[in-house]
Amino acid sequence: MKKSDLHYIKSYLTAYYHRTYGKLYISIKKPEEREWAVLDIDGKMVRHLHITSLEVFRDLISSYTPKGLYHSASYYEHPSEDMNLKHRLATDVIFDLDADHMPRVKVKEVFRCKNEACGEYGESKICRVCGSDTKKIVIVDDEVIEYVKHELKRLLSTLYNLLGIEESTTKIFFSGLRGFHIHIEEGPLLEMDDLERIGLKDFLTLDGIDLSLIRDENAYILNMLTEELPKLLDEASDWELKAVLKRLDELKDNKGEMLKFLKAMRDDRELLTKLNKFISSNLGIGVDPAVLTDLSRLIRAPLSIHGRSGLVKIPIEPPRLDDIAVIADAMPTNVKCKVYIHYLPPIVWGGEEYGPFYREYITLPESLAIYTVNLGLGESLSIP
Amino acid sequence: MYGALDKTFIWAVKYPFDKKSIELLASLEISLEEILSDESFLEDAKKRLKIILKEGRLTPSISRNPYRDFVIFYLQVLLVKAMGVGYVERRFIDVYSKFSSAFLSKEDEDNIRELAENLGISTELLEVNGGKYFGVPFYDFLKLSKRLSDRFWRLYYFPISNGNVLLTRKSFIRLLQEAVKIRLFEIVLSVEKIPEGISDAAQTLLEEVGDLIPKTRADHTRDFTTREVDHYPPCIKYLLANIGKGLGHSARFTLVAFLSTMGYDKEEIIQMFNVTPDFNEKMTRYQVEHIFGLRGGKTRYSVPSCRKIVSYGFCKADDICKRYTVIHPLKYVYIKKRYRK
């Protein structure tokens, strides 16, 4: 990255945190019981920080230029000690829905030629100019976020309607780039250890599912399978899978027979494994397993800026979920910025369409301009 | 037949860990000295512990003197604590949880629910599509089922309604057995002071039953240390095969912890990673030394369990994993070395 661009981004971050540090700090539950960490603009990660007051937090923000600002999901007795001396008191339950973990979400991809002398951009895996290999660059925009929003609604419905989690105990955030975070910061779930969280993760993602093991006609997975059969039949391309799903569809009014049929599938392990994988990838909810199960996890602080996108991790009220233009709301400023774009495919950012652009100076929303520079698709940020 | 007072003692014999039973013990106002003055109490407690260690089970029956049975249970708790051997403690807890579970399976719903309530598990009786269920909060289910190795104990195999997991009577009693284990563990843990008479008896007992106690875990681990890759579980073989493509954090952690347990030294392991596309010796050394317990908090990390490996996404379970219900990668090595040479 050019020095001038680094300087521009530094000013952008400094100005934001100067305006927002107080609001950010008070939005965090028990900040003094958490471990804090800063990813400095120079790429250096500083961990095990203990913030005891707003003044200490302000000093932290002034000492670094946070490209990423994080706090632990856990509450500790001694937040600044090494991991095994911190003494964990409780841990927020955090669900991370990220476009990267969802095979069904179609992100936008651009390929950059690995041959430095060429460096051409395009949309094919082999460079169209010199035939060299390319490096994939993934771009997130409004459309990708809309896809992830569907997954978010499924997750919320499962948490509220099935698991009986009180809506008032959850906080929903746009993560600042690729999806959403749900934080649960009160109640008995905070006591769960890592194995219990793995159990919850398996339930959501359907990891390790074996349909031949279902014994109860009212089992959650059997009900879901029955309800989703029409959709699954549409999705299945493999003829063997289709045949199994059709048979299940014929039996759907007789759960006992469905169970017998699924149990009998143990005789064809290969087909059963194929069915199990198909069910978990189509009906599982794509939460990031590490974020949900790792008790020493650091999570991006609410109202902090995602260093790559220049967008803010903003809270979202569930009733507004359908209407909210997430990226537009997450832009910290309305300022426009001039940037030289090497290549940018058509994207939608904050409700506006941009691109395609190819080797030209363009004026873009400041966050998008910063995002293109961080992706290596643009350079030379300046005020128009 | 038993009298009314005997009934309370019978409950206490069946469920000595229960709140009601502990209240009964306190109400007896009998001192340990008084109990120990009759040597036969301590002798019976020792006999019972020997049966537990030798046979791994207790017949679920109640003698003609339930008061005696109940007192003997608490003498066993003191003996177990005084012996200070993890294996004895685990065996005692396991056997007594099964002993209580056998009685519980014959109780009516009210008694089952009362015991559950006293163990801190609130239940609801629910009927769904003609099926009768005990509803348990899903987080209690996750807590109590996490150590059950049968793959059936996953949340998605059960009916769920409004935050409750719906369990049949049989499943609920099995789950309560886990809650009983936790309570028994707490009871043993709560013993702070060992009376002199008990310490001596525990030492004698320890000498008498020494050959019934398996080698310590450390010795056991050394038993299945090997460098023969064929003995390694499929997940580790997969990681070794893919080391050159670059592994994620959890995968590197698992591999280093496993190899260190197999007896590789840190230099050998660091060199193994010298084929990754992004090899950085300084960083690799730091991570490896951390796992070896040479840096940071000086904790030597152990190999993650299969449950964790599944969640990391590189479980490649083969026939041996399934046939022997392998729940830890080291168990796989043990099985390969012992049974499948």
Explained architecture:
The complex is a heterodimer of chains A (about 375) and B (about 350). Chain A is an alpha+beta fold. Chain A has two domains: about 250 residues, DNA primase, PRIM domain (Alpha-Beta Complex), CATH 3.90.920; about 80 residues, no CATH class. Chain A contains eleven helices and 18 strands. In chain A, strands 2-1-3-12 form a four-stranded antiparallel β-sheet. Chain A has a four-stranded antiparallel β-sheet with strand order 6-11-10-13. In chain A, β15 and β16 form a beta hairpin. The longest helix of chain A has 25 residues. The radius of gyration of chain A is 24 Å and the shape is globular. Chain B has about 350 residues and is mainly alpha-helical. Chain B has a four-stranded antiparallel β-sheet. In chain B, a hairpin with a 2-residue loop joins β3 and β4. The termini of chain B are far apart. Chains A and B meet through α4, α5 and α9 of A and α8, β3 and α16 of B.
Keywords, please?
heterodimer; A: 384 residues; alpha+beta; DNA primase, PRIM domain; 2 domains; 4-stranded antiparallel sheet; 11 helices; 18 strands; 24% strand; globular; B: 341 residues; mainly alpha; 3 domains
In short:
The complex is a heterodimer of chains A (384) and B (341). By secondary structure, chain A is of the alpha+beta class.
User: If you consult CATH, what is the topology of the largest domain in chain A?
Assistant: DNA primase, PRIM domain
Strand order in the sheet with the most strands of chain B: 1-2-4-3
Q: Helix/strand-derived class of chain B? A: mainly alpha
Query: Which radius of gyration of chain A do the C-alpha atoms yield?
Result: 24 Å
The count of helical stretches of chain A stands at 11
Number of helices of chain B: 18
SS-based class of chain A = alpha+beta
Instruction: Tell how many strands the DSSP assignment of chain B holds.
Output: 4
Straight-line N-to-C gap of chain B: 58 Å
CATH architecture of the largest domain in chain A: Alpha-Beta Complex
Give the count of structural domains of chain B: 3
Low-confidence stretches of chain B: 218-222
Radius of gyration of chain B: 25 Å
Shape annotation of chain B: globular
